[in-house]
Amino acid sequence: MSVAKRSPLLSWTVIAPVVGILVLALTWGRDSGAVLVTIAAVALMATVLAAVHHAEVVAHRVGEPYGSLVLAVAVTVIEVALIVTVMASGGHDAETLARDTVFAAVMITTNGIVGIALLVGALKYGTVLFNSEGSGAALATVATLATLGLVLPSFTTSEAGPEYSTSQLVFAALASIVLYGLFVFTQTVRHRDFFLPITESGVVTEETHADPPSGKTALLSLGMLMVALVGVVGLAKVESPAIKAGVDAAGFPASSVGVAIALLVLLPESIAAIRAASRDRMQTSINLGYGSAMASIGLTIPAIAIASFFMDGPLLLGLGSTQIVLLGLTLVVSVLTVVPGRATRLQGGVHLVLLAAYLFLAINP
Questions:
Q1: pTM, whole model, 2 decimals?
Q2: pLDDT digits over 301-344, tens only?
């Protein structure tokens, strides 16, 4: 007796984003109590997991390295929308929220996503392999973007605080877009082979993996990914007052809000990177980690720069001395990690200790 095949429209990955939109409609603009906040939080987590699934389906259809770009850009859209909405609501930390969130994203991606992927892969396979040319190019772009967007504002003299003047901000925004565009062209067109997973025998070809989903399935996932992103952005906005209230109640500094936002929006890529590492596709994990850091700076800073012209108050982008030291150490360690083209659990542990140091100092400066 044959069993009827269940319609893909009844899958939880389709239902979750729809439920998320319904919960968003019920909670938007209302003074939500503890019950509604809890329901919104559960819906948010389910929608995030659904977004991961649909992004992976689309990524499998288009193949690497395009798939990593899909997820990186999708997460950056969430990040920009959340930063802008929270900044627009005002507050004593609104002028530093963009800086705190972008820096948190950089530290979480370069140390957290890359670190845990290295550890997971090395624990399972002993030594993980990746293309040092592509990984090094990505890391160099991240270092340049981070310096232009987050370090130099602390040393310029046109403005009194750690901020750019209008002309400097425009230059930094344009330079960020140009650098990100050049990297995307290099990754997807000119030197695509630098960013493909490799083994001892060379580049892994798409034929060694499962057949990609059909065009119809990929289009369904693309549409549901868009729905899920809307749900995540909206529900995150609903949850942001609870996040800020929790941070204040715990006595943490205001910068912890940016850390919480970054942890939330980077959950999809973290899950995808861990899955890739567990399948011995470390290059995909590195593409996700560094690609997310790159998109977070290269796309978020220009978007926030544009938004700042329509908002009151300064836009403080410059990092403090402790943050600059942590960023510098992260970049040095990252260079030593990617240059050999192979890594063990030691490198993963070093990056995770750096992440732990950042998180600890973020709540206990």
A1: 0.81
A2: 888 888 777 777 778 888 999 999 999 999 999 999 999 988 99
Any idea which fold 11-363 has? A middle domain of Talin 1 (1.20.1420)
Cα 19 to Cα 17: distance, rounded to the nearest angstrom: 5
Q: With contact defined as beta carbons under 8 Å apart, do 187 and 134 qualify?
A: yes
Distance of CA 58 to the CA centre of its chain: 17
pLDDT value of position 185: 85
Q: What are phi and psi of 203, to 5 degrees?
A: -70, 135
Name the CA dihedral angle for 197, 202, 207, 213, rounded to a multiple of 10 degrees: 0
Contact partners, residue 76, CB within 8 Å, separation at least 6:
292, 295, 296, 299, 300
Residues of 199-223 as b/e, b for ≥16 C-beta within 10 angstroms?
Answer: eeeeebeeeeeeeebeeeebebbbe
First to last CA, the chain: 65
CA distance 353 to 189: 36
Alpha helices in the chain (DSSP H): 12-27, 34-62, 66-88, 94-107, 114-125, 132-146, 166-185, 215-250, 255-265, 267-278, 282-298, 300-308, 321-338, 345-363
Q: Are strands 342-343 and 202-203 parallel, antiparallel or unpaired?
A: unpaired
**Distance from C-alpha of 304 to C-alpha of 309, rounded to nearest angstrom:** 9
Q: In this structure, what DSSP letter does residue 154 have? A: G
> Which phi and psi angles does 198 have, rounded to 5°?
-130, 160
Structure confidence by residue, pLDDT tens digits, 56-88: 788 777 765 566 677 667 777 777 777 776 676
Concatenating the DSSP letter of every residue in 74-136 gives HHHHHHHHHHHHHHHT--TTHHHHHHHHHHHHHHIIIIIIHHHHHHHHHHHHSSEE--HHHHH
Measure the CA–CA gap between 273 and 79, rounded to whole angstroms.
18
